[in-house]
Design brief:
The complex is a heterodimer. By secondary structure, chain A is mainly α. Chain A is built from 20 helices and two strands. The longest helix of chain A is centred in the first third of the chain and has 24 residues. About 2% of the residues of chain A have low confidence. By secondary structure, chain B is α+β, with helices and mostly antiparallel strands. Chain B has one domain: Alpha-Beta Plaits. Helices cover 24% and strands 27% of the residues of chain B. Chain B contains two helices and six strands, in the order βαββββαβ. In chain B, strand 3 and strand 4 form a beta hairpin. The interface between A and B is medium-sized, with 21 and 17 residues. Chain A: Keywords: Sigma factor, Transcription, Transcription regulation. Chain A: Belongs to the sigma-70 factor family. ECF subfamily. Chain A: It holds the Pfam family Sigma70_r2. Chain A: This is RNA polymerase subunit sigma-24.
């Protein structure tokens, strides 16, 4: 049994404990402890019934903790020592967990951490490594989040846009440590799409698959960032593209457009094009118009200016850009790019250098520095 | 073993020998410089002397409390004359001499024209958290 399959059992096991009377916070702790034991023991001694093993181990952990707590407080143990008879429900315990872990009352960073642990079945250590913080810090973040949502009803649907936002954040974190957060976000979104049937969940899944398809070409062999226009498109994963496009088409056919479907449509148009020059930029601009109508987001306006620059030429793009707030991240880089295409190389080089100083990541900073160097070198001396 | 902080400055350190702003290098010189830095860190991991490295954005501000119940006061962006740290590497080495040797190696990263930058790095010993048990 591989680790992903083991992790897939976690939400269901939490569900079983909660139905037996455990509160969510204690159930989640107990399952985490059982999971760590399983990761230690299963490689040498795999159980015949993995889920049964996890339920039994987690229930024992829960009872130990509850007994210690009740004797500390001198109170009766409120839950039954013996689980009620009857079948253990096998299927979807995960849906209410998504809504609970991404509860709107939680700050996004805490919702991400709790979702990865309770829905994703990652250990605190793995999550801490992925987000480059000490394990004790991540453990505190998770237990504070659980205290914050204690007492929330578990039986009604929550706020879907918040859940999607959390999954999107996980996806964008990419890959660090030993956990592939991009793949994990896809797994969790796929599971959610199967449980809800909402077009926007499908839209987000399609968006992730389409971006994931470019992963091998997004970075050069030396780790450098390769922009879309320069990517080796023969290395894009056509299986993921086909799956993303199919999911997106089915979602769009239901005629309930949302921001993730529109973003996925843009990604699909890129996936469909053999090169930047042969990309259907006119249609991409139309999708950005839809997105702008849906969100009113200044970031969308910025991306739209780039698309207009490709569809109608750099001057048109610059005209669009004049409507965008210059304080936005990436504004300066976009302006540099459009000015370079318009032939104003000197100003473009200066702006690339300025943009590199405002970059928020090392690969982005290095990329923009290289762009400045490249344009500066092409200037007549 | 002793830990040292190697500090790299955007500005504020004495001028390096090969002193050309990075955006005026050739693109492949930028790439060679970045590669050298990465290889250096990988080599220190292999020798068991690497602890941590971080890069800092030149953005930011000074900030201080303005008293209870009042919002913090900021002073920024940084003045052009301010000493500005670009990043650091923490190493754990046998001796001060080894720390100097490694800092010099890092300072020799290739720059404009493929020649070593020979920039000034600050080398700072950590104060340990506990006195020596045998002291």
């Amino acid at each position: 049994m591989n680790e992903a399959l083991l992790r897939g059992l976690v939400p269901a096991v939490i569900g079983v404990l909660v139905r037996r009377g455990a509160d969510f916070a204690s159930a989640e702790d107990a399952v985490q402890e059982a999971l760590i034991r399983a990761l230690e023991h299963w490689p040498d001694d795999p159980p015949r019934d993995p889920k049964g093993w996890l339920v039994a181990a987690a229930w024992r952990k829960f009872l130990d903790a509850a007994r210690a707590e009740s004797s500390r407080r001198g109170r009766e143990l409120a839950v039954q020592d013996e689980p009620p008879a009857g079948p253990v429900p096998g299927t979807d315990d995960s849906l209410w967990l998504y809504f609970l872990c991404a509860h709107p009352s939680l700050p996004p960073g805490s919702a991400v951490a709790l979702t990865l642990r309770a829905v994703g079945g990652l250990t605190t250590r793995q999550i801490a490594t992925a987000y480059l913080v000490p394990e004790a810090t991540m453990a505190q973040r998770i237990s504070r989040a659980k205290r914050r949502i204690a007492g929330q009803p578990l039986d009604r649907p929550g706020d879907l846009p918040t859940v999607l936002r959390v999954l999107y954040l996980v996806f964008n974190e990419g890959y660090s440590g030993d956990v592939d957060l991009e793949a994990e976000a896809i797994r969790l979104t796929r599971q959610l799409a199967a449980a809800t049937g909402e077009p926007e969940v499908a839209g987000l899944l399609a968006l992730m698959l389409l971006h994931h398809s470019r992963r091998a070409s997004r970075r050069g062999p030396d780790g450098r960032l390769v922009p879309l226009a320069e990517q080796d498109r023969s290395r894009w994963d056509t299986r993921l593209i086909a799956e993303g496009v199919t999911i997106l088409q089915a979602a769009l056919a239901r005629d309930r457009l949302g921001e993730y479907q529109a973003q996925a449509a843009v990604a699909a148009l890129h996936a469909d094009a053999p090169s930047t020059a042969e990309t259907d930029w006119v249609q991409i601009v139309e999708w950005y118009d839809e997105l702008l109508g849906l969100t009113g987001s200044p970031v969308v306006r910025l991306n739209r200016a780039v698309a207009v620059g490709e569809a109608d030429g750099p001057q048109a793009g610059l005209a669009e850009l004049s409507e965008v707030d210059p304080a936005l991240p990436r504004y300066t880089a976009v302006r540099a790019y459009l000015l370079e295409r318009a032939g104003d190389l000197e100003q473009a080089a200066d702006l690339y250098a300025e943009a590199s100083r405002a970059a928020t990541s090392v690969p982005e900073r290095d990329h923009l520095t290289r762009e400045a160097a490249r344009v500066r070198q092409s200037l007549p001396r | 073993m002793a830990k040292y902080l190697l500090l790299k400055h955007y500005r504020g350190a004495p001028a390096s020998v090969n002193d050309v702003p990075m955006d005026q290098w050739a693109p492949e010189e930028v790439t060679a410089h970045i590669r050298y830095m990465e290889d250096f860190a990988a080599r220190l991991e292999a020798t068991g002397e690497f602890v941590d490295k971080q890069a800092l954005s030149p953005q930011g501000a000074f900030v201080r409390s303005d008293g209870e119940g009042r919002p913090p006061v900021t002073d920024g962006p940084f003045a052009e004359t301010k000493d500005l740290i670009a990043g650091w590497m923490v190493i754990d080495v046998e001796s001060y001499e080894r720390a100097l040797e490694l800092a010099a190696e890092l300072s020799a990263a290739p720059g404009a024209g493929g020649r070593p930058v020979q920039e000034w790095l600050e080398v700072r010993p950590f104060l340990t958290m506990a006195p020596a048990a045998t002291g």
